[in-house]
């Protein structure tokens, strides 16, 4: 059975996509068949993994709204064992159209279940890149997921918004998906030279004791550059600090999922 991870934080630019792309690539490198689902109309994970959005005939929108089987939308990537359900701006329309659909919180779950049911070789992991909002797309991700991974940027406003996010996770657990659990909070863009990074990390650890990943993602130029080359960090610079930390995160994730 695939373990489904929603990577989410309604705050923008905290490292959700960077984490989704690089964690997925590292899981695949470890031999885990992994499906990256891009649930963000920005399509950053799609282009970041090297898919040319212009060339796509179909994308996640068609699975959610037109009942096109996911199988017809899944793309191979340059990384062995890593597959992607791409997103384009069309997905912004899905967010609107979902509102009037039956069982609107479970549309992604149903599409994934149908896809998994038809697969000969199952996935080990499905990693969902969420948009920066707590709207219906993110609710669909949480309703479909086994666990939530929350990237937290090491900056002053990091804790702001986390309470609301945790309430949303709790609401989904109570009303829509009782198996949902917190996989962990991941500190991102850490700069050990600044007191702020150190203080914010301490603060988050204090509030969420035992739930913060030991792996901390530093601010790293190569991690920022990789998406413009359409490559995960493991391909763009296999010997960088970025590769090292995301590999470490993949080991930690596998350990926590069990
Ligand atoms: N560890 C890092 N070191 C350096 N740059 C990073 C790091 N993590 C992310 N970035 C850069 O910061 C920006 C925001 O990161 P990313 O796109 O992953 O955030 P996001 O949470 O997905 O954003 P959005 O909310 O818009 O979807 C990007 O330009 C990315 O390349
Ligand atoms: Mg993103």
TrEMBL record:
CDD domains: ParAB_family (cd02042). It catalyses: ATP + H2O = ADP + phosphate + H(+). Belongs to the ParA family. It comes from the Bacteria. InterPro entries: AAA_dom, DNA_Partitioning_ATPase, P-loop_NTPase. Dimerizes in the presence of ATP but not ADP; ATP-binding is required for double-stranded (ds)DNA-binding. Interacts with DnaA. Pfam families: AAA_31. The lineage of its organism: Bacteria, Bacillati, Bacillota, Negativicutes, Veillonellales. Residues 3-181 form the AAA domain. This is Sporulation initiation inhibitor protein Soj.
């Amino acid at each position: 059975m695939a373990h489904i991870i929603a990577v989410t934080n309604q705050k923008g630019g905290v490292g959700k996509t960077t984490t989704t792309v690089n964690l997925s690539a590292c899981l695949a490198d470890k031999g885990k068949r992994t499906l990256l689902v891009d649930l963000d109309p920005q399509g950053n994970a799609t282009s970041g993994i090297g898919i040319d959005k212009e060339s796509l005939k179909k994308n996640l929108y068609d699975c959610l709204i037109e009942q096109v089987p996911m199988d017809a939308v899944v793309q191979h990537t340059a990384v062995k064992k890593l597959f992607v359900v791409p997103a384009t701006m069309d997905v912004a329309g899905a967010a609107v159209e979902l509102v009037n659909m039956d069982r609107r919180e479970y549309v992604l779950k149903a599409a994934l279940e149908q896809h998994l049911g038809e697969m000969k070789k199952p996935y080990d992991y499905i990693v969902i890149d969420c948009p920066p909002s707590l709207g219906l797309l993110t609710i669909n991700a949480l309703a479909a997921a086994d666990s939530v991974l929350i990237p937290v940027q090491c900056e002053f406003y990091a804790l702001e918004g986390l309470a609301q996010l945790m309430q949303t996770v709790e609401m989904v657990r109570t009303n829509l998906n009782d198996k949902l659990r917190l996989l962990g909070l991941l500190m991102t863009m850490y700069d050990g030279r600044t007191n702020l990074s150190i203080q914010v990390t301490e603060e988050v650890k204090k509030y969420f004791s035992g739930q913060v990943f030991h792996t901390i993602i530093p601010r790293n130029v190569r991690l920022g550059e990789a998406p413009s080359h359409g490559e995960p960090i493991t391909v763009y610079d296999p010997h960088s600090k970025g590769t090292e930390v995301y590999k470490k995160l993949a080991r930690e994730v596998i350990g926590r999922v069990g």
